[in-house]
Amino acid sequence: MPQHNFTTAPTEIEGLYTINYKIFEDDRGSVMEFYRQSDFIAASIPSLGVRPQVNAPLSFKGAVRGVHAEFAHKLVSVAGGMVYAVIVDLRAKSPTAGKWQGFELSRGDGLFISKGLGNSFQSISNEPSTYLYYFEKEWAPGMPGKSCNPLDPELNIDWPIKDGQGMIISDKDRNNPSLREALAS
């Protein structure tokens, strides 16, 4: 059975890397190696620390979560289903401030997201998707960070499932600050 190797590649946004995970397949299915610190160090990607938090939200087709930028590195991947991940640079002094990149991710695909980059995704598969977040630090209420409205016209994110056409979004995310407000804070 095939084995997929761990690879990484930088993107147009500094501190954002695409990741193809190591996957071992056999007749029973597969095992995806989500995090092996030695592989990340060898790829010159910052460590996530010794006691990070891992979340695994289950999202129905059309659901949008984000844009959230805690001041902690994150490693994200998909355990099941498929998502359209959008990463927004919310670092005011960055040369790519306000820019975003979109990625279709399924099992075996992931992103390393540096501090200050806003993470968001939309579930796009018919079955629910499970998106894994591996945090450098444990999340806590009042944790420093920024958020941005994923529907802000200035951002102009081309979500696969549009608002009013099957998109599911929380009032909280819909009422997040605009891109302009997020960059000014």
Q: Topology, please?
A:
Elements lengths: L2 E2 L2 E4 L5 E5 L1 E5 L2 E5 L3 H6 L11 E2 L2 E2 L3 E8 L3 E7 L1 E8 L10 E7 L2 E5 L3 E7 L5 E7 L9 E3 L20 E2 L1 H4 L4 H6 L1
Name some characteristics of this structure.
3 helices; single chain; about 10% helix; Jelly Rolls; mainly beta; about 180 residues
Describe the structure.
This protein is mainly beta and 185 residues long. The chain has a single domain (9-20, 49-184), classed as Jelly Rolls, CATH 2.60.120. It contains 3 helices and 16 strands. The strands form 3 sheets. Strands 2, 3, 6, 7, 9, 12 and 14 form a 7-stranded antiparallel β-sheet that branches. The longest helix has 6 residues, at 37-42. It is globular. 33% of the residues are buried.
Structural class based on helices, strands and sheet pairing: mainly beta
The share of residues in extended strands comes to: 35-45%
Number of helices: 3
Order of helices and strands: EEEEEHEEEEEEEEEEEHH
Average pLDDT: 91
Strands, count: 16
What is the number of domains?
Answer: 1
CATH class: Mainly Beta
Give the CATH H-level superfamily.
Jelly Rolls
Per CATH, the architecture is Sandwich
CA radius of gyration: 16 Å
CATH topology: Jelly Rolls
Overall 3D form = globular
- The termini sit apart by 51 Å
What proportion of the residues is helical, as a percent range? under 10%
Query: Which blocks of ≥5 consecutive residues have pLDDT under 50?
Result: none
Tell me about the biggest sheet? Answer: 7 strands, antiparallel
